[in-house]
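Most newcomers find our protein records easier to grasp once they have seen one. A learned vocabulary of local backbone shapes supplies the integers on the structure line. An example says more than a description, so a record of this kind follows:
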Amino acid sequence: MVHMKSQREIDRLRESADLVGRTLGEVARHIDVGVTLEELDAVAEDFIRTHGAEPAFKGYQVGDNVFPNTLCTSVNDAVVHGIPDDYALQDGDLLSIDCGVKLDGYYGDSGFTFGVGSVSEEDAALCRATYDALQRGIGQAVAGRRIGDISHAVQTHCESRGYGIVRDLVGHGIGQSLHEDPQVPNFGEAGTGRRLKPGLCICIEPMINQGTGEVQTDADGWTIRAVDGRPSAHYEHMVVVQDEEAEVLSTFQYIEDVIEPPYEIDALKEKQTR
């Protein structure tokens, strides 16, 4: 069942989304060559708990698998759901971080791909295309359009540049549960799928590979990796469908205040409410 959010619920979700953005901004301060993924995870957990919330991912269970950490940290060919460990970041790495919080009963969820040190132009181009695809998807999240319009906007932008769309993973609704209906794929036909209505809160999250879109799961049961070993990028925003244009609840501004992102900030700058 799809639940349209009241203004009160949207306000609560905005607070949760803002905390995710602030957490990612704090993590960004610590990203550097030689820093371990476990160290970044500890920074995030401390920040979230200090601000009166709980990590949404820690303890999240799928079947018999329980996610053990606060952040999903996915390096290079890892697409999403990477488990933080003692890996020390290297110059040129792409690091995708997905972060979730639960604040006063409402969830926030957002993701960002960081460039560590000097990133190759090829990898930066992948990040730019993924970020721009997110903005194009958000542009379709308007009342009266359909889920397929979002999906098609992401797919056509990335495939026209030769990138692979990860089809095994999708965006999702969000509210008092981390994952709600409807699913929001990154591929599809325009004019198809559920019709969008005001108050629908969804996470749009292109997961785009430099090569093939095919993926596999590591032995840890969580890490999703490109089968050809080439890099992947992932950006995610929480948005609310409205009549004129989508309202973006999450923000990358806290990150952009700290680092120079691996995309053009002015290219398709999202409209955000902080």
Summary: The chain has one domain: 7-256. The first strand starts at residue 54 and ends at 55. The chain is about 25% helix and 25% strand.
